[in-house]
Amino acid sequence: MENIFRNPNGKPINIPQPIRNDGAGGPDWGPRDVLRDLENPDMFVPPATDSGLLPNLKFSFSDTHMKLNHGGWSREVTVLELPIAKTLAGVNMYLTPGGVRELHWHQQAEWAYMIRGSARVTAIDQNGRNFIADIDPGDLWYFPAGLPHSIQGLAEGCEFLLVFDNGSFSEMNTLSISDWLAHTPKDVLSANFGISEDAFAQLPDEQVYIFQAPVPGSLENQRVDSPYGTVPLSFKHRLLAQTPLITPGGSVRIVDSSNFPISKTIAAALVEIKPGGMREMHWHPNQDEWQYYLTGQGRMTVFAGNGTARTFNYRAGDVGYVPFAYGHYIQNTGTETLWFLEMFGCDRFEDISLNQWMALTPKELVEENLHVGPELLHALRKEKWPVVKYRDQTP
Length: 395
Fold this sequence. Notes:
Elements: E1 4-6, E2 12-14, H1 34-39, H2 41-44, E3 58-60, E4 67-69, E5 72-77, E6 89-95, E7 100-105, E8 110-124, E9 130-135, E10 139-143, E11 149-164, E12 175-176, H3 177-182, H4 186-193, E13 210-211, E14 236-238, E15 245-247, E16 250-255, E17 267-273, E18 277-283, E19 289-295, E20 297-305, E21 308-315, E22 318-322, E23 327-332, E24 338-344, E25 352-353, H5 354-359, H6 363-370, H7 374-379, E26 387-389
Antiparallel strand pairs: 1-2, 3-22, 4-5, 5-6, 6-11, 7-11, 7-12, 7-13, 8-9, 8-10, 8-11, 10-14, 15-16, 16-17, 17-24, 18-23, 18-25, 18-26, 19-22, 19-24, 20-21, 20-23
């Protein structure tokens, strides 16, 4: 068989084979999905240090079902798609200019990151205090469980990521205003609002979910004053406006209840890894980690103890997952900057740096434990660097 394959653009490429440079493995004669193998080089030819069994820690939004509506689309990754991800679930959504995710609420808290474009969000709390704001790229919003809200695309439309604090959540099972009214007798609606039944003659007969509407006017023109005032804690946070922690390999911006007080059940970090950079070896002592890759490509190795480690490849649009306290690192394997979000179902971001831990432990103990010498001991850092530079040593 010819060892040449052409990609969708007609460019010839070599067909990868599951043979490691130490001679392990052998040719795969097919049938096979060559493009898929090219996307997962470290799963197709795992590093020699990979060992043991781990559940799948990767799922792509490209492999999900797309729900299309007039006004936008949505798709989700829940425990149905990624069974290990029990703490958080995610929805990727697009709204056209004027497209509306209708008035609704959830049994789960909603955390969101605006990827492109802008949207107007509205909400109220249990005391009748309202919130109306425009969300731009790099901004977040957070709505506590049970609080009603809406999202509408502005002049450019918008695409965003929604994260919910329960892995079993499904966007298809939200509580929507149109759905409730469609399943309420007209005489009850008449009594509730104090108007005639005829006023409800044109109500939708099922859940609207997403619908097309005109692009809204200015924020000032849509202002609604509540006699109870506005919400005391803002539902919006400008993550990209934060000053990042910059290290030689990239940067990180951390957002949790310490700087976004309303966000009580989801904490996050926006991580930038430059080409040749690496999210350092670390683990999280308080929660599982749910990841969303925004740009670039990388690989993550997860260490589960008892001789178990496995490497996964990720690219823009993928979801990754790391169980509680498992050690891991993420390398940028591409030529462009790798940006991703790491999220946690808790109120505070916490991580433990392997480098810092070793640096703050007596040197004699580290030396005896690992049989290492001065080169490593003198290189250890007492300050945490979430992203470092590395020399590419591909297995």
